[in-house]
Amino acid sequence: MTDMPKLRTRLLVGGPRWRCLRCPRQGLIRREAYAAVFAEVAVDARLGLVRVRRMLGVYDAGRIVSWKLAGGQALGGLVGGIGQALLEHTVTDHRAENNWPEHAADGGRL
């Protein structure tokens, strides 16, 4: 069983508004992750349809503590990017305590 408070103390450093991973060899690491995303789309101008044929996301996220959560973040970013690119707009529910798009769970299978 993992001792979560001990793991948190070992890995995280920072204040209440930000967190950085601690790396024994390099000191502090920035908390941001960087990505490059490429998409191949097909456009049918006559019907006004856009199809995403395939996507590739390449990420530099440093030390991954939870692969499941990191994968979910990456997939969520891809789905959110498709929505922003196709609609040129993002709708968020400002009553919620997050900034997630309202229909983020409706992304379907990529």
From TrEMBL:
* The organism's taxonomic lineage, starting at the top: Bacteria, Bacillati, Actinomycetota, Actinomycetes, Kitasatosporales
Q: Which InterPro entries match?
A: AldOxase/xan_DH_MoCoBD2, AldOxase/xan_DH_Mopterin-bd_sf
For this UniProt entry, the molecular function terms from Gene Ontology, in alphabetical order, are: oxidoreductase activity
Q: Which domain of life is it from?
A: Bacteria
What is the protein's given name? Aldehyde oxidase/xanthine dehydrogenase second molybdopterin binding domain-containing protein
Q: Where is the Aldehyde oxidase/xanthine dehydrogenase second molybdopterin binding domain?
A: 33-94
